[in-house]
Amino acid sequence: MAHHKSAMKRIRQTAAHTERNRAGRSKVKHTVRAFREAVASNAEGLNETLSKAVATISKAASKGIIPAKRASRKISRLAKLLNSAKA
Q1: DSSP assignment of the chain, as one string?
Q2: How far is 71 from 62, CA to CA, in rounded Å?
Q3: What is the CA radius of gyration of the chain?
Q4: pLDDT tens digits, the chain, 87 residues: what are they?
Q5: What pTM does this model have?
Q6: Which candidate, 73, 27, 84, 20, places its Cα nearest to that of 53?
Q7: Long-range Cβ pairs for the range 73-77 (8 Å, 24+)
Q8: Of the candidates 43, 67, 71, 70, which has an alpha carbon nearest to the alpha carbon of residue 57?
């Protein structure tokens, strides 16, 4: 266990950041899963569901929760899935 005041503060900060990042990644997973389920069930409002997922992914990328290239790849694949579902 850390004995320096700064090291103990760093442990607290890391715990807070880890919790925040975990919540953000979980939110991304939930919105992507909701979109994929909507596509699978041929639900209405796919464009709105996609825009929610894209917004969540973009926000996570802008905050550094996920890398920018991963966010771009996820968004691209979801758009591709929507286009194939419409065809």
Answers
A1: ---SHHHHHHHHHHHHHHHHHHHHHHHHHHHHHHHHHHHHTT-S-HHHHHHHHHHHHHHHHHTTSS-HHHHHHHHHHHHHHHHHHH-
A2: 9
A3: 17
A4: 788 999 999 999 999 999 999 999 999 999 999 999 999 998 889 999 999 999 999 999 999 999 999 999 999 999 999 999 987
A5: 0.88
A6: 27
A7: 74/28, 74/32
A8: 71
* Domains assigned to the chain: 8-86 (1.20.58.110)
Token pair in block for residue 28: 């991304």
